[in-house]
């Protein structure tokens, strides 16, 4: 009995130490801000702090959150990906075109649609990575061009029309529930957990930080810098494809204009979460909190009846504050 009590005490102390380390890191103020905003919104609107509202927030941010996982890897390497929104739309539309006219029970076509969406996402991400890593092109310009090409291809494939009705296997990731929890939320959490493990617990994750911190030093240390950069963009393409699958499944349709402007929300969640645009610093946990914070602000202000235009203004102000704090932090280092 005494041994059990001692073990519990040690576990409690370990959790306390971990929590203190978290607060001392850059996530402390972010967590505090999220908690304070949630408290303020729950006081102003009692219906905010309900299970249905909180679940709705998680579902609403699921597409942004999934895409932001891959984007976090890219930005930690001091890159940027502006093509993510167009790629979300493209992967959903290509899969929809492949499954055109298939009945709801067509398992084979549904699985093929999933595979095609992931393959397209990985291929486009790999093209971005190839151009940035080996052709040494500027990430902003490369992904801006890819954003236009992917959106144009989406419109060309669809002829500007929305495609409806997909097999149940495909829509399950966006429309079904498991143990009472919506599939988009579960997919998002699974992607975040996988991303966190990959970034924090694997040699590849350590290499991502090293490349973002100092490419030349990483190269001298024997790290394959070009390959790491290439893989981060490929990963961003895969997570964009997963986001596209979830979005198309939620809507049971693929829209040519889907995810328009999503890249700005993705970058906002990543930067608000503490990932530095200068590279070398960031975390998947921080991105998760940043994405949720944006969702909380959007849903909370909507419940309060705030004009959507002001909501967009406030969201922009939060992004500006996050970028300003990052810039000030970089200046203090130098």
From TrEMBL:
The chain crosses the membrane at residues 26-45, 57-75, 82-100, 106-130, 137-158, 178-199, 228-248, 254-272, 284-303, 309-328. It is found in: Cell membrane. The keyword Transmembrane helix applies. One of its GO terms (cellular component) is plasma membrane. GO terms for molecular function: transmembrane transporter activity. Keywords: Cell membrane, Membrane, Transmembrane, Transmembrane helix. It comes from the Bacteria. It is a multi-pass membrane protein. PANTHER family: ABC TRANSPORTER PERMEASE PROTEIN YPHD-RELATED-RELATED, RIBOSE IMPORT PERMEASE PROTEIN RBSC. This is Ribose transport system permease protein. The lineage of its organism: Bacteria, Pseudomonadati, Pseudomonadota, Betaproteobacteria, Burkholderiales.
